[in-house]
Each structure stands twice: as structure tokens, then as C-alpha cells.
Amino acid sequence: MIVLEETRAGERDEDDVAELDGVTVVTPYRTVLPDDAVDARALATVRALAGERRALVWLYTPMMLALADAFPGAPLVFDKMDELAKFAHADPRIVPREREVLDRADVVFSGGRSLFRSVEQRTRNARCYPSGVDVEHFERARGAQPHADLVPLRGGPVFGYVGVIDERIDLELIGALAAAHPHATVAMVGPVAKIDESVLPRRANIVYLGQRGYDELPTLLAGFDVALMPFALNEHTENISPTKTLEYFAAGRPVVSTAIADVVADHAGVVYVARDRDDFIALVERARRGDAERARRADDAARAATWDAIAAAMRADLEAAGIVYAAASPARKNSAALA
């Protein structure tokens, strides 16, 4: 399998080729970024690596449509994990390109109910697969000591979020939660993206721990008394199906969320879903006390949604569409794959 990343700024023009667990990853670096996600040079690198092998093109963003054009006649799969056109500063070309991708794709996978509804009438073969979870990885949180960066905060409860901090987060809610629980710590783990850091709420009991490695996540979650999904309810979040929901479940953390449509539809009996900010603050305290039945249902939900099970079902969908290939099903990424 070959994975082509989107172009990044670099000190010289080159296509970095790396082998990671049997997957060839091509990362284009350019001194001057091209007008598009990838340029002809990167596509030529992928074609050379593919050689005479039969191609299957698998896109995660319509902005990589040029990869499909580089392999005419190859089956095309579109894996729609986000409503990219509704992200802040989204490229205006995403909408028309997605229309073309949906028209051309042999199979379309959608990462949640809301996304599925947005594509099922616009393409000929759509399937819904909400995100899965690496249960074994995240359940390490259950027996782990909290991450060293959280140990100094353990004088009181820790309410934590893991993920990108961007326009999808209700920053006023974070500030209100910290104000309502002055003896607790609100820990925000993840990079700040697409928003100015000056807008982040600042209080003595809010800490920003920045982006962390995947291997650190279990010990970070081990230090949370309650896991948060403090999403704003706006156009940027109306189609999201947060991957972190199942990760929190596998880690054994109680979860409090705002009323994201897919969370309500899939996990209302497990997640504490808040009607408004005051309700969110109250539910955090309630979740902290624990609920054995909710915890049992969370375990069941996580174990029913492993990535292996999802990959096997997706492969069956491909075979039903007449697409058979030797490689394992591509892992979920934010670029494009050639299997």
C-alpha cells in the first residue's frame, strides 16, 4: 500500500518516501507550496512506486482527486470522515470536487450517521461506518499511573479533553466549567488549530498540555476523572461523529458531551448528554460519581467497534462492488491511499 500525504512546506523540493509497518508513505515537501494539495512531481513518484501493480485509489479528501486522475480506470473509493467544506478556512474547491468524487466513486464510506445522510442520495454505493477504536491500546488507561504531567494536578478532580482545539470547541463552556469547579482542573490535551490562542479561556485551573503522541494517550486518560466532549453546536459540528467517544469508553472514563447529533443517536445511553452549559457543568459532577450500568454499556460499545471488525466489513463491501485486491484494508488517514 502507498499513502500519499498532502504537500508540506520544506527547505527543498523533495518527495520523502518512508516505510512504516509495510506501508509506503510519500510526503511531498516544497519550497513553494503548489496551488493544489499535490503536484505532478508527487504523482509521478507514486506512479513509479506503484509500477505495474493493479491500482485501487482510496481518497480521504476531495482535494486529492488528482490521484484518481493519475490512475485512470482504477476503482475509486471515497472515505468521507469529515464535512471538510464546513471547517474554518476551508478551500472553496472542496464542494465542487466532492460532487465529482461522489459521482465517480465506486464505493463511498461515511464516518457517521450524519455524514451518511449527506451522501446517500448523491452517490450510487454509500455505506456508513462510524469510527472504531483500538481497544487494547486505550484500555491500558485502566491500570496505568497518570501521566507525569497530570500528577501535580491530582490534588483535586481532573476533567479532561483530548483532541484538536479549534472552532468546534465551545471555549466559553470550558471557561464556565472551570469557574464552576475552582478546586478541579480542566486539562485540554491537543494542538490549537485555526483559531488564535488569544481567544482561549485562561484561568488558574485550566491547563493546555499541547499535542501529545499516541502512546501517551492511555496515561493521560488515566489521569482524568471525567472525559469531556465540549463541542460547540454550530455548522462546524453538525456532521461530526467523534472518534474520541469510543477511545474514552475503552479507557474506562465516564463521558460528558454536548448534544452532538451522532453522539445522541449512537451513545445516549452511555454518554451524559447536556442540554445546555449549566446542564453540562452539573453532569460533569454527576459523571464523576460513576454509574456501573453506563460503564458496562461503554465497555460493550467499545468492544463491538474494533478497527479489525470495521476493516473486515469494509472489505466485504468492496468485494460486493467487484473490487478485490491483495492488500489489507487501508487504515484511516487524512490523505489518500493507493492499494
- The pLDDT mean sits at 93
* Topology, number of strands: 15
In percent terms, what proportion of residues is strand?
A: 15-25%
Q: What is the count of structural domains?
A: 2
Helix and strand sequence: EEEEHEHEHEHEHEHEEHEHEHEHHHE
Category from helices, strands and their pairing: alpha/beta
Low-confidence stretches: 328-333
Measured as a percent range, the helix fraction is: 25-40%
Provide the CATH topology of the largest domain: Rossmann fold
Q: Specify the number of helices.
A: 12
Give your account of this protein's structure.
This protein is of the alpha/beta class. The protein has 12 helices and 15 strands. The strands form 2 sheets. Strands 1, 2, 3, 4, 5, 6, 7, 8 and 15 form a 9-stranded mixed beta sheet that branches. Strands 11-10-9-12-13-14 form a 6-stranded parallel beta sheet, with helices on both faces. The longest helix is centred in the C-terminal third of the chain and has 14 residues. The chain is globular and about 60 Å long.
Please render the helix and strand layout as text.
Layout: E1 2-4, E2 8-9, E3 14-20, E4 23-30, H1 40-50, E5 57-59, H2 65-69, E6 76-80, H3 94-104, E7 107-110, H4 113-119, E8 126-128, H5 135-138, E9 158-162, H6 171-180, E10 185-189, E11 206-210, H7 217-222, E12 226-229, H8 244-250, E13 255-258, H9 261-267, E14 272-274, H10 277-289, H11 292-303, H12 307-320, E15 336-338
Parallel strand pairs: 1-4, 2-4, 5-6, 6-7, 7-8, 9-10, 9-12, 10-11, 12-13, 13-14
Antiparallel strand pairs: 1-15, 3-4, 5-15
Helix pairs in contact: 8-11
